[in-house]
């Protein structure tokens, strides 16, 4: 029974990651990674950008002819800040690329890779046996490729689990969309023409 649950859990995990989006998980994991292992890097980038913008704004207000010494000092500060920011951006881009490769590899190994491994390791093991005669001569399909006849193989169980999860996901999405859909306002029922005409004659 534990193998059945393990296979279903692996398939569910893969479908859950696909549903959320691997790029979304990558962004969240990378932000957490920076906060834990490089807490000053992101704050340094943010403060450096703020300093450059402030110095640039002051530079634009300074006349190069009337206040050349101040203008030149601000210009050098902006150039140095841009160079430092470019270096820091390159360092963070390299860090992000390295983290992205490791993260995607871990996701693949933890989902698809583990499914392949479990499918190969238990390729001859029956997940469970079906009652005799349920599927007749077609029972060998459920045991494909190496499980005993009359049983459900790990590969077939993976397919059934994935299909069931997708159907469940579709049902949940349809239910959520119908529940969140705006309801039409309930107005007064329209007055029939005959009723309105009769009422006007009575008044007259």
TrEMBL record:
Membrane-side (Lumenal) residue stretches: 1-3
Transmembrane intervals: 103-122, 134-157
UniProt entry tagged with the keyword Isomerase: no
Region Disordered: start-end pairs: 181-204
Subcellular location: Endoplasmic reticulum membrane
Membrane topology qualifier: Multi-pass membrane protein
Pfam families noted in UniProt: CHD5
InterPro entries with a match to the protein in the record: Get1, Get1_fungi, Helix_hairpin_bin_sf
Cytoplasmic side: 169-204
Chief location: endoplasmic reticulum
Domain of life: Eukaryota
Keywords attached to this entry: Endoplasmic reticulum, Membrane, Transmembrane, Transmembrane helix, Transport
Family according to the record: Belongs to the WRB/GET1 family.
Protein name per its UniProtKB record: GET complex subunit get1
Source species of the chain: Marasmiellus scandens
């Amino acid at each position: 029974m534990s193998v059945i649950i393990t296979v279903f859990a692996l398939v569910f995990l893969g479908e859950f990651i696909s549903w959320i989006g691997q790029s979304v998980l990558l962004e969240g994991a990378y932000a957490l990674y920076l906060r834990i292992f490089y807490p000053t890097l992101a704050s340094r980038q943010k403060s450096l950008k703020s300093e450059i913008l402030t110095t640039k704004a002051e530079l634009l207000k300074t006349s190069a002819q009337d206040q050349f010494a101040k203008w030149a000092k601000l210009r050098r500060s902006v150039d140095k800040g841009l160079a430092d920011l470019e270096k820091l951006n390159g360092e963070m881009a390299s860090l992000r690329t390295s983290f992205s490769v490791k993260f995607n590899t871990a996701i693949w190994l933890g989902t698809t890779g583990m499914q392949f491994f479990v499918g190969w390791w238990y390729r001859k093991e029956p997940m469970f046996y079906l009652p005799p005669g349920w599927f007749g001569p077609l029972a060998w399909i459920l045991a494909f490729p190496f499980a005993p006849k009359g049983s459900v193989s790990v590969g077939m169980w993976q397919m059934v689990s994935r299909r069931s999860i997708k159907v469940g996901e579709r049902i949940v999405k349809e239910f959520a969309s119908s529940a969140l859909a705006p309801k039409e306002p309930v107005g007064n029922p329209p007055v029939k023409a005959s009723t309105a005409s009769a009422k006007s004659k009575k008044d007259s």
